Request: fold
Amino acid sequence: MELIIGTRRWSTWSLRPWLVLRKTGVSFVETEVELRRGAATQADLAPYSPSGLAPVLKDGDLTIWDSLAICEYLAERFPEAALWPADATARAQARSAAAQMHSGFAALRSECPMALNQPPQAKDLSPATQEDIQKLVALWSYMLGRFGGPHLAGSWSIADAFYTPVATRLRTYGVNLADYGDDGAASDYVARLLADPDFRVWEDAAQG
Ligand SMILES: N[C@@H](CCC(=O)N[C@@H](CS)C(=O)NCC(=O)O)C(=O)O
Reply:
């Protein structure tokens, strides 16, 4: 299996399936393509990606070119890795949370890009981004309360892979979740995502 990823420092879409693939325990080849944002990158990714975007998973002659589709494929291919919760209710809500990240939080994503090599520094945030952070805190608090933690739907799942890049953004831009209604559960969750041993491997490699 080969996972083609974009620049580790800021390719959030690549980090998500990379974490999920690590959780399966299988060995895989990683190919990092430096994203240069534009026509040059399109040419670099063209041999791998039908969409011209990273990430891409290759499994034999199968190509999958979207982060969520890759994660769903890995969940089917490695059922023993329990990448989605076994319980149907937890699974449905974990999928909702992952899909919400995949298609939402646009203001937070554009205003606070992942920047793993950047020292933490507080930044003034627009009302739209502040609204996104309030939604995040509400979502995380609800799920951590409902399923009892330590992750969103109980044990670690694909939903947590989808929110790991957000945890780095909150750290990089000095966001204090207590200002957005957190009673401590959401900031503990952020610390847990950032301490994940697989994420630490990614972050170390991103500094190189
Ligand atoms: N919906 C896609 C989005 C993928 C995406 O936007 N990838 C970015 C990198 S994070 C990319 O390849 N950009 C190409 C470029 O920067 O030129 C997914 O979930 O995989």
Summary: The CA atoms of residues 1 and 62 lie 10 Å apart. The two ends are 24 Å apart (CA to CA).
